[in-house]
Every structure is written in structure tokens, then in C-alpha cells.
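Hi,

Apologies if this is the wrong queue. I'm a grad student, and the batch job for TetR/AcrR family transcriptional regulator from Streptomyces inhibens produced an output file that my downstream script rejects. I'm not sure whether the problem is my script or the file. Here is the sequence I used:
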Amino acid sequence: MPPETLTPERILEATEEVLRRYGPAKATVVDVARALGVSHGSVYRHFRTKAALREAVTKRWLDRTSEKLSSIVTEEGPAEERLDRWLTALFEAKRHKAGDDPELFATYTTLIGESGGVVDRHVTDLEAQLTTIIEAGVSQGAFHTPSPATTARAVFDATGRFHDPCYAPEWSRPEITTDFEAVRDLVLRGLRS
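Support response: The file is valid. Your script probably expects a header line. Output copied below for reference.
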């Protein structure tokens, strides 16, 4: 049986496992190559530097959330309901990432600190998704705002406690869901015309 073709996706999967096992401080490209059964030069053919590999694995991790949320953006129906679902889905996705695999979440939190450009693009994508929903709400007459993009940024910032990783320690508190619902409801009331 011929060996499996080395692809960027396989490398990223192996990198995630190596990061889970060793953490960001100790994980090396050699560890990733060893996990794949290839030379580290083979990994470098796909990712020119260790930093590029770490940035790509961070982007992949963040993109999982963006992809889940984008399906809500493209749904039909009232924008207010979609915004409610989008904000709830963002909070749940982040809370599950932190709670389901705390070691990997801590690893990615470290990597996010190293990958400013990736994080900036992620935030820009999420704000663009919010803008699309808010624009739909304005078109439907459900929301009133002179600038959907500015409002989207404000909504993202106002709900930061429920999606910014620096608040992750709070996400396991029993009252966090009630706190989230209060902020989400306030945001929705504020957008109504």
C-alpha cells in the first residue's frame, strides 16, 4: 500500500495533535514530522517556517467557528432571529472550545497571541457576518441604524465577554448563561426600530 500523500491538511491535523501533547512551548516541527513519519524538510515544503505552521493551525482553529456561524448568516428568515442565533452560537462555540479541551484551548490562546494578523482577519470576518445580518434587519425594517458596519463592530465589542478568550475562566460559572441572555436581549432591543 503506497504511503498517504502529505498535504497541508494532514500536516495541520498532526500539528494539532503535537500541540495537544507537548504544548506550544515544547512542540517542534521535528515532532510534527515524526508524527507523520516524514522528514522535517517535507513539512517545510508546505510551511516555510515554524511560525507559518503555527499561524496556519491557528487560522484553521478559528475558521471552524467562522464556518459554523456563516451558515446562520445565509439562512432565510427574520434578521432578529438570525442575530439571536448567531450571538448564541458564537458564545456556545467559544465556551465549548474552552470547556471540552482546556489544554488545547490554552495552547491556542498562546498561539493567538503570536498570530495577530490571523486574529485580526478572524475578527474582521465575524464583524462582516454581523454586518450582513444587521443590513438584512435594516432592509426588513426590524433594525434601525445609520451604519450597519459600525453597529456590527459595537455589537461585537459589547458581547466580547462571551467570546473573547481572555474571559474564558468566567464561561463555566453557573450564572454566565443568564448574563449572556441579558446582554443579548439588550442588544436586540437596542437595534429594533
